[in-house]
Write a structure and sequence with these properties.
155 residues; alpha+beta
Amino acid sequence: EKGMGTAIDALKQSILFKSSSDTDLDAISRMAVSKDIEEGETLAVSGERATSFYLVVSGMFLLEMHDGKSMILDQTGAFAGLDILSRKGIYCATLTALTAGNVLEIKRNDFLDFIRKDTDLAEKMMHTWNQHLSESISFFEPPEEEALEGLDYQY
């Protein structure tokens, strides 16, 4: 059955969750919604309010930064949209499907509620995320605050 098993496998393959306990993985997989994505579909738009983050299960996705740099996400467990954890909660990149595929979508509010209860996991994730950003995508600085000031956000 495609569902829980797949979700947990994808989570386990993600550097974000590789040190998470089975209990955490189980809880996270329950809030994850499996979505089949069509080629050309846009999941996140730079500058818009971050409502979900995504883990790649299958397919190939293009992550385009606000500054024109981009990267391909095609590994199970690759993630995008963790901007949900930033204070502003604004996507700093646009995520588009280059091929049909499948992602796990985790809603910002569910996830924030969950990590608020589990500060240990939250710290581990932020640490992993920051490490990931500095190592593999050194160009992944969040947009300058000034660059965003002209945009009006509706909450």
